[in-house]
UniProtKB/TrEMBL annotation:
Residues 255-264 have a biased composition (Low complexity). GO terms for molecular function: flavin adenine dinucleotide binding; NAD(P)H dehydrogenase (quinone) activity. It holds the Pfam family Pyr_redox_dim. Keywords: FAD, Flavoprotein, NAD, Nucleotide-binding. Residues 379-485 form the Pyridine nucleotide-disulphide oxidoreductase dimerisation domain. Binds 1 FAD per subunit. InterPro entries: FAD/NAD-bd_sf, FAD/NAD-binding_dom, FAD/NAD-linked_Rdtase_dimer_sf, Pyr_nuc-diS_OxRdtase, Pyr_nucl-diS_OxRdtase_dimer. This is Pyridine nucleotide-disulphide oxidoreductase dimerisation region. Its cofactor is FAD. Residues 6-347 form the FAD/NAD(P)-binding domain. PANTHER family: MERCURIC REDUCTASE. It comes from Frankia casuarinae (strain DSM 45818 / CECT 9043 / HFP020203 / CcI3). The lineage of its organism: Bacteria, Bacillati, Actinomycetota, Actinomycetes, Frankiales.
Length: 493
């Protein structure tokens, strides 16, 4: 049962698959260890099902905004059909369609839980039947185990059986009332998805002063306005301090959830020892389900990191060649969410390709080993709400905090003819952030319908360090919304 191979990959999500396939293409022997489904979180419980559930409501909302089409929309979203489509998209939670890709590459799939076991390249695997197998990698072990939803230590929350991203994206029932904790990408997407799928009451609770707090400030304000116009209650600067689930008896069915909420006051953190009259005012929100979307925890708690001198339960810090910092011999790599650089599927796949190139000895055109250039400067990200939020690189605030002398300009996304011919009034903002010394883009943000298809042009401009004078010659087609690029350059001057 023991085996010696060139490369062992722990985790068969998008990052793990890609590093395994690329190494195998280079002629290396590869084993992938996976305890769940090949395809990982994104395929079954994240990106694919969540965007599938968002799509019906997005299409109906767009049609209702277009004269000539609005009158044809006579009913709500068919939630049952949306859930059935979701099941088809995730292969009915079977990876039978994804495994052949690995097999065709010559990669061996081992079903079980892998754990680092001390000496360089050694991995102990507990197979699904409980037996044990010891593997040894001569070149590299790549950790691609991802993350899991964080459940904060709020009194009563764990006992209330909260939803996380997996429960929500896999649901077959639309709760009449839903409370969402967290105003990041997962929270806002699923809040809007369930409102449009038929939830009568959706309340989103976020401790920060705006939604999507890491994006440009106008993003959160526009999203909040859209949510409130759609009947979603948005409570910013608030936190849940207690959760209670009603039950009909010790073994009875679950009843409503009561969430106690109080304002967040950074200057007065509500010390329980303070007199009651000095504590922030509290109230309660009652719902049928509570969804926790407050962040992600690295899946490294039982990975054996302590056997190689690393701290278990934490993200694995890597260098610009995706090698684990603090582990001698350059044999341990980490890619995807588990390295904590950018918790996005596309960035994990990018990191995986780089790690494979380092492992196989590939060089760039200058003859130097390849290294990660995108994570520090050009991470593209899309939040698939309505309005959609698409951004890449630095926000204006982040650029200034990094010491870059920048100038930022903004224009309405709907200020071009391409927006008008869509037949709907396009709200939203397009913004670029320019490094004045180099006259190149370091950031861009677009809000409005379908802006996800605009962000890649900005990504290319940032990664390629294209001077503004050169960007003038990138002519957008007419009439497209991409013509907003001309408006931005004209305003910049």
């Amino acid at each position: 049962m023991d085996a010696d191979v060139d490369v062992i990959v722990l985790g068969a999500g998008p990052a793990g698959e890609n590093v395994a396939g690329r190494c195998a293409d280079a002629g290396l022997s590869v084993i992938v260890v996976e305890r769940e489904l090949v395809g990982g979180e994104c395929s079954y419980w994240g990106c694919i099902p969540s965007k599938t559930l968002l799509r019906p409501g997005e299409v109906l909302a767009a049609a209702r905004r277009v004269p000539g089409a609005a009158s044809a929309v006579t009913g709500p979203v068919d939630a049952a059909a949306a859930f059935a489509r979701r099941d088809w998209m995730v292969g009915d939670y079977s990876d039978s369609s994804q495994v052949p890709w690995l097999v065709d590459k010559g990669v061996e799939l081992v079903r079980g839980t892998g754990r680092l076991a001390g000496p360089a390249g050694r991995v102990a695997v507990t197979l699904l039947d409980g037996t044990r197998r010891v593997l040894t990698a001569s070149r590299a072990v790549v950790v691609a185990t991802g993350t899991r939803a964080t459940v904060p230590p709020i009194p009563g929350l764990a006992d209330a059986e909260p939803w996380d991203n997996r429960t929500a994206t896999g649901a077959w029932k639309v709760p009449h009332r839903l409370v969402v904790l967290g105003g990041g990408a997962v929270g806002v997407e699923l809040a809007q998805a369930f409102r449009r799928l038929g939830s009568a009451e959706v309340t989103l609770i976020e401790g920060s002063p705006r939604l999507l707090v890491r994006e440009e400030e106008f993003v959160g304000e526009q999203l909040r306005a859209a949510f409130e116009a759609a009947g979603i209650t948005v409570r910013l600067g608030s936190r849940a301090v207690e959760v209670r689930r009603a039950r009909t008896g010790p073994d009875g069915p679950a009843g409503p959830v009561t969430v106690t909420v109080e304002p967040v006051d950074p200057a007065d953190p509500a010390d329980p020892g303070e007199p009651v009259e000095r504590r922030p005012r509290r109230d309660a929100v009652v719902a049928d389900e509570i969804l926790v979307a407050v962040g992600r925890t690295p899946a490294t708690g039982d990975l054996g990191l302590e056997t190689v001198g690393l701290q278990p339960g934490r993200f694995i810090e890597v260098d610009d060649r995706l090698r684990a910092v603090g582990v001698a011999g350059d044999w341990l790599y980490a890619v995807g969410d588990v390295c904590g650089r950018a918790l996005l599927t596309h960035m994990g796949k990018y990191q995986a390709r780089l790690a494979a190139d380092v492992i196989t000895g590939r060089r760039d055109l200058a003859g130097a080993p390849v290294r990660d250039l995108a994570d520090p400067a050009a991470v593209p990200r899309v939040t698939f709400t309505d309005p959609q939020v698409s951004a890449v690189g630095l926000t204006e605030r982040a650029a200034r905090e990094a010491g870059i002398a920048v100038r930022a300009v903004s224009v309405p996304t709907g200020s071009v003819a391409g927006a008008s011919v869509r037949g709907e009034e396009i709200t939203g903002t397009s913004k670029i952030v320019v490094d004045e010394a180099r006259r190149v883009l370091v950031g861009a943000t677009f809000t409005g319908p379908d802006t996800q298809e605009m962000v890649h042009a900005a990504t290319i401009a940032i990664v390629g360090e294209v001077p503004l004078e050169r960007l003038w010659h990138a002519v957008p087609s007419f009439p497209t919304v991409s013509e907003v690029w001309l408006r931005l350059l004209e305003v910049y001057g």
